[in-house]
User: Fold this.
Amino acid sequence: MTHELLTIGRISVDIYPNDTGVGLEDVNSFGKYLGGSPANVAVAAARHGRHAGVITRTGKDPFGVFLRRELEKFGVDGSFVAPVAGLQTAVTFCAIKPATDEFPLYFYGRFPTAPDLQIKAEDLDLDAIREAGIFWSTVTGLCQEPSRSAHIAAHEARPRTGLAEGQFTILDLDYRPMFWASEEEARAEVAKILPHVTVAIGNDKECAVAVGEGTPDEQADRLLDAGVEIAVVKLGPEGVMAKTRTERVVSAPVPVDTLNGLGAGDSFGGAFCHGLLSGWPLAQVLDYANAAGAIVASRLSCADAMPTPDEVTSLLAERGRPIPGAAPGTAEFATEGAAL
Assistant:
């Protein structure tokens, strides 16, 4: 069965404190969850009913068994997940301080390398990658060999199709400085991938690493000039902008009480993929993805917190936003006039 979404890259066990609002040094108990952006995006898309899979590697240890079980629980195809002998599954500790809007991450088992950075080009199922409706990768996967060469091989295998064909290759500009020697090194590697990408998604800093400093519009235009067909620039408290060569749309933020902001981007990504696959107008895709991200920001965990379509459309209706797929004039279609 062809995947509607196939992601590649980082997976980990996320360790979240049960005691929020304090530093990790003061936490007494924790819970463990599936983590890693590409894995979370696949989970998020599966929650929207999409056939999603992930290409990644774990350690040959109990935490690796846990992650494969979690993928199965969430309905994500784990047939491209394999253990790497001699390496331990990566673990990420997260401190949650919503009152200060701080959610620092502490990575363990990723230095000098991690299992998911040991994905090799010769082990890829290029037919599955070529045929997937959406192929999703991240900049983090380019930070080290052999993962870097595997990502390049995967992108080279993808057909270069226009937006009308309904097949998309997405690069999450997910830049994490601790994995790179310099921003210049990251920019050079991103430049090799962008000609193969139809959609690029990132915040201001991530876009700056990819294509240089500038206004959101300037960064989006540079991404388009590099070959991307949809440039998505997250604007923080001002929402998110998406730009093509013929269209520019902005989705205002969906206000919620933030508990943990760490999974919002992955929820946004899975919902964005769902919207693209549904063929919705770009403005509706952004509104839907924005709402999905907001829901996860209001919850503790990431993968376990990914919303269902009913939860997303309910939040859109509460905030007076149009419901994607609903015809104007129906009960499911909300007007923009409501207070946000």
Summary: Residues 170 and 199 are 5 Å apart (CA to CA). The chain has one domain: 5-12+35-88+110-318. DSSP finds ten helices and 13 strands in the chain.
